[in-house]
Amino acid sequence: MSQIVENKICDSQEMGLILARIAEEIVARNQGHQKLALVGILTRGVCLARRLQRIIKDRSGRELPLGILDITLYRDDLSHATHHPVLRKTEIPFSLDDATVILVDDVLYTGRTVRSAMDGLIDFGRPQSIQLAVLVDRGCRELPIAADYVGIEVPASPQDRVMVRVEESDGFDLVTVNPRSSFEGESANGI
Questions:
Q1: Which of 24, 25, 89, 116 is the most buried (most CB within 10 A)?
Q2: Quick check: is 95 in a domain?
Q3: Preceding amide of 43 cis, omega within 30
């Protein structure tokens, strides 16, 4: 069995600084927007959205509503799935109509997850605009999608695996890149 090689990109302290910067950028860009909301893409996008919500409240006093989006049924590869997808609950307890929505995810890769998320959001209402915040932009886009707020850019080949771990679901914060040779047989992270 081969040993997994992980190249550390950022740890808990660095992640905290990155999220604080993204929160400041969101507040600065959206000062005139009265109807502003965060929506996290399950799973780690929700954890990051909750952190951004706390930071924005602590620093600006503005409490943004938070939604949770499950994109499972919106994926364009659902018909090719070899397993039964697990459906989780989408919770958007506020109107999206005429809102500026900050969509939050952990990794931006091909753009397909974001496209699916936008389809899901539109089913819940008609936002004035959708902005995208990601912790990691790893490149290798297949769709013309770009993030408005990027924590870090990690140039990775399509064969590499970019892993984001967060305290809430993994027990610790860490971003790593694993070269393909260290995880042969597994699929790369992020769609």
A1: 116
A2: yes
A3: yes
Contact (CB, 8 A) for 129 and 97 = no
Which range of residues forms the domain containing residue 23? 11-74+90-156
Structure tokens at 50: 């909750």
- pLDDT, one tens digit per residue, over 37-51 is 999 999 999 999 999
Strand partners, 178: 161
Strand (E) or helix (H) holding 29? helix 12-29
Residue 50 and residue 69: Cα distance in Å, rounded?
Answer: 13
In the chain, how many domains are there? 1
pLDDT per residue as tens digits for the range 152-177: 999 999 999 999 999 999 999 999 99
The letter for the amino acid at 5 is: V
pTM given for the model: 0.88
Residue 28 within any structural domain of the chain: yes
14-29 tens-digit pLDDT: 999 999 999 999 999 9
- Helix, strand and coil content of the chain, in percent to the nearest 5, comes to 30, 25, 40
